């Protein structure tokens, strides 16, 4: 049983990926390796965890940003269709043309080539492949297909003009409203915005993929009422008690304030009155500790969590709600620099949570970039490990270990990586 499976992700002419990269969580069934850290959906088998290695500046963070770019372009399409520049200036939106175009910078011709994005998701036993291309902020093409027994294209767009859009199956009911799709807006996004049930479900599935950069995980801004219910609070508390034995309890208070409200004029009668409400949620965490007199507890004290806990403990509380929410819902998590600020025992705990069918019955996936080679030393399949490298022209490529010739199940992946067997480590003189 699973929630959402991220099968594949691909980008081209995005960031350092000039020639395109393709990432998949599908297992390489041609390799005879152990299967204890995989899961199956029908005839398909997937890795629970994928590790991405690469030197500093190789493109690991940009790979993580690729899914954020897809989510952002999907989310802002209704704003772009509203034809209201003031909306794009709202904090925390602040959307600029530069946010829409992230083409490869180190080749002059790249600015004249569309950026291509692709995401493939398994949902309810059906694989949905969604791709689109954008140039100078304008949608050049957009395709959505589904595959269960056979492949069917249910959205096909061949130009910026809405007249080029063809819809079938679950999206056919959106056809009467197709004129709201402007040249800078994605059709799937607009269908979801107008409450097409299927489009809304698919967009929600794509947006359910969490992306976290551990290096910039300062404070507790990732904690929200959605991912910190009582069940998750208790799970986090159990882990933190092992980190800090004096910790007895956590109290979390959320304060929501409205930042601004703007109308969304979308040239269609039944959309009059729609509003964009921008809100800011503040979180206040207090920790409850025991005060001892020798071996006896004599008092309890409440402390501001951010002020008195270590940066590592704060990071633990910052990431655990996201992880536990993913485990509960079966949603994928992408973590950049997983090891940043975390003790090896905490890394072991996190990996164990995803690898165990008992703690991960919904088959949530973890995709992480890391420099911690120890993660790839024991009981890791070759098709779980990816390597990103960058050439002398600033172009990054990506490949998994199982695709390199001459690799064996018995190979020590960490040793081979450090010996530059995969050509990903720069030479220093």
Automatic annotation (TrEMBL):
This is ATP-binding protein. Keywords: ATP-binding, Nucleotide-binding. Signal peptide: none annotated. One of its GO terms (molecular function) is ATP binding. InterPro entries: ATPase_AAA_core, P-loop_NTPase. Residues 52-149, 306-375 form the ATPase AAA-type core domain. Pfam families: AAA_21. It comes from the Bacteria. SUPFAM superfamilies: P-loop containing nucleoside triphosphate hydrolases.
